[in-house]
Amino acid sequence: MRPISHYTSADRDSTQDIVLCFCFNCVYCCYLPVSSTVPKWVHQALAPVVVALEKYIPPPYAGEIRGMASLFGGSLSDIVILNFAYEISAFCTSIVAQDKNGSVYHGRNLDYPHPVLRNLTVNVVFLKNGEVAYRGTSFAGYVGLWTGQSPHKFTVSGDQRGSDHWWNWWKNFVSAFLLGRTPVSWLVRETLAEAENFQDAVMRLSKIPIITGVYYIVGGVRAGEGVVITRDRKGPADIWPLDPVNGGWYRVETNYDHWLPSRDPRRYAASKALNATGQDHINMDTLYQASTDQSKYHIAHF
After folding, report:
1. 3-state SS, residue 208
2. pLDDT per position as a tens digit, 93-142
3. What's the number of domains the chain is made of?
4. CA 275, CA 237: separation in Å to the nearest integer?
5. From residue 57, how far is each of 34, 111, 137, 175, 185 by CA, in Å?
6. In this predicted model, what pLDDT tens digit does every residue of 246-290 receive, in sequence order?
7. DSSP code, position 254
8. Which of 23, 26, 30, 92 is catalytic?
9. Out of 16, 167, 168, 219, which could bridge 106 as a Cys pair, Cβ 3.0 to 4.6 Å?
10. 183, 57 contact by CB (below 8 A)
């Protein structure tokens, strides 16, 4: 299906201009299977959230969710459920690497388990005062970001940590509203919008409480600015920076703690491809090739 493109501000009351490309018919193709996994009591608990959305969901997300529900012609509860379902779906491979000249490269694959997400993928440009504030890759109907770039400052990607089954996503929904913690993809977006530089981004992504564990991979604009942050809900479990002086010129993260044996071949395949490439020859093209070489091990490669 060829995407139908519409360009608008998702939140009609927002001061930011947000450019979105939607494939409307695909949104509910994704929503229907995840909705069926939600316990009835969660649907019931969602009712007061929808009635007083701004009380439970901070700006700009509440306004954007309202705007998207209006665009799709769907209910607010549908869009809220869809957003929290995505929070446990980031099966990805992220790579940050540094060449011999000190330039840092950051790449990632989207290895999502739901094939319908191929038709929901959108590139989003966030404008402030007529200029690009930051960019990200997301999904139609989703207000968070798993991948983004703040121009001339840093890049971020997020990978799901652990192997919790995707149908247990609603537990994160409960964590967000009962404990007041931030969804992991919202923290990516907030960091892109607010962090001044690489160090500031790493600090925010390491310390702000979130609803579930995750890996944040961050790349900067200076030599040595690359790191994998392994997150628990309350703070960092591990910080794994680039260490090119001692041979650590790249870091590969999939969905498992890097100090433990990998449960699937993706990390091994990516590392093998990078070692074959070598630091002398790493660049945008060879990084892409290294990612492509191990794509056959992915759940679904985009």
Report:
1. coil
2. 899 999 999 999 999 987 665 566 666 788 999 999 999 999 999 887 88
3. 1
4. 27
5. 21, 28, 22, 13, 14
6. 999 999 999 899 999 888 788 999 999 999 999 999 999 999 988
7. -
8. 92
9. 219
10. no
The span from the CA of 213 to the CA of 104, in Å, is: 26
Which of 69-78, 212-221, 245-254, 270-279 has the least mean pLDDT?
A: 69-78
Q: What is the DSSP letter of 294?
A: T
Reported pTM: 0.84
Give exposure, 275-298, as e/b (b: 16+ Cβ within 10 Å): eebebeebeeebbeebbebbbebb
CB-based contact 279:226 (threshold 8 Å): no
| Sequence-separated (6 or more) residues with CB below 8 Å from residue 252 | 93, 94, 95, 258, 267, 270, 271, 274
Domain that holds residue 276: 1-302
Q: Which residues pair with 228 in a beta bridge?
A: 217, 240
Is residue 145 within 8 Å of 185, Cβ to Cβ? yes
User: Both tokens of residue 300?
Assistant: 């679904």
Residue 170: CB atoms within 10 Å: 22
Q: Which one-letter amino acid corresponds to residue 180?
A: G
Say whether 92 is catalytic: yes
Our separate counts of H helices and E strands in the chain read: 10, 11
Q: CB 269: neighbour CB atoms within 10 A?
A: 22
Q: Name the residue with tokens 């929904």.
A: 173
CA nearest neighbour of 178 among 28, 45, 31:
45
